[in-house]
Amino acid sequence: MENKINAFHLKMIAIIAMLLNHIGSGFHLNEYSEPLFFFTELVGKLTFPIMAYLLVEGFHYTRNLKKYALRLTVFWLISIYPFHLLFFQNYPFDPTEFVNNIFFTLLMGLLLIISYEKTKSTLLHVLLVIGFSLATILSDWQLIGVLLIFGFYRINNVTLKKTIPLLYTTAFLFILLMIVYFISPSSVPWYEFLSVFGILGTAPLLLAYNGQRGYSPNWVKWGFYLFYPLHMIILILIRALM
After folding, report:
1. Is Transmembrane helix one of the keywords UniProt gives this record (predicted)?
2. How far is CA 159 from each of CA 20, 152, 203, 204, rounded to the nearest angstrom?
3. Which whole-number Å values give the CA distances from 76 to 71, 104, 167, 229, in the listed order?
4. How do the domains of the chain map onto residue ranges?
5. In angstroms, how far is the first alpha carbon of the chain from the final one?
6. Residue-wise over 34-62: b if at least 16 C-beta within 10 A, else e?
7. What is the four-CA torsion angle of 84, 192, 109, 48, rounded to 10 degrees?
8. Tens of pLDDT along the chain (242 residues)?
9. How many whole angstroms separate alpha carbon 221 and alpha carbon 11?
10. Other CB atoms within 10 A of residue 190 CB
11. Using the 8-state DSSP alphabet, how is residue 198 labeled?
12. For residue 177, which of 202, 149, 196 has the smallest C-alpha distance?
């Protein structure tokens, strides 16, 4: 396959996949059509792996890591309430149901690889990986999200780095669902099991990635970040009108 996909293309795919996923979850499509909901979940699984890979790319090429981390922090904070209102529908905000959004997971992944670069101790490296992973235990893509980012960062072989992290992430989520299923079979519907394999659909996209930024004016750069809170606010308003 020729490498014809650039970072702009990956961003657009991630945005479309995210929108479909959040429509499915935010509007509880599983209550109306399980196959349709399965489709939104399956496609939605492309979103975070693409964002995680682009985060590592940003780490390698950004001129200012502090500004990069600050940008993630700002969008994590401004997305907290829209995220909870869309997926938990708790108004006013209920701290007992607090779950961090995807920008927090990305931020923890970035801070991990920054810290990893600055230290040499193997023991400290292990503790950093464990610590930053545990920090996301109450976050979207909990635990495994940071490990996915770390795999993209740590594996040097170009082909393996675009496949191995996706494989162990899929295996982790599938095994986790199996454990939950054995404890409470009714709590894990069929579409939850099958949708995790959507993660593997990221592999051909990353393998076709040519390492180029592509179309990247400032409005695209900032629009990619702004899309996350803005589309959730729009979906919340549409749901309220319905």
Report:
1. yes
2. 28, 11, 9, 10
3. 9, 6, 27, 9
4. 7-241
5. 44
6. eeebbbbbbbbbbbbbbbbbbbbbbbeee
7. -80
8. 467 899 999 999 999 999 999 999 999 999 999 999 999 999 999 999 999 999 999 999 998 999 999 999 999 999 999 999 999 876 556 666 788 999 999 999 999 999 999 999 999 999 999 999 999 999 999 999 999 999 999 999 999 999 999 999 999 999 999 999 999 988 889 999 999 999 999 999 999 999 999 988 888 889 999 999 999 999 999 999 98
9. 10
10. 9
11. G
12. 196
> pTM, whole model, 2 decimals?
0.94
- Contact criterion met (CB below 8 Å) for 113 and 151: no
Q: Is 106 helix (H, G, I), strand (E, B) or coil?
A: helix
208 CB-side CA count, 13 A: 13
Return the number of other C-beta atoms located less than 10 Å from residue 178's C-beta: 12
Phi-psi bin for 98: left (phi > 0), alpha (psi -120 to 50), beta? beta
Q: For the chain, what is the largest distance between any 2 Cα atoms, rounded to a whole number of angstroms?
A: 56
CB 207 within 8 A of CB 159: yes
Peptide bond into 92 cis (omega under 30): yes
Tokens of 61: 């090429």
Tokens of 98: 């607090």
Q: What tokens appear for 217 in the block?
A: 């004016």
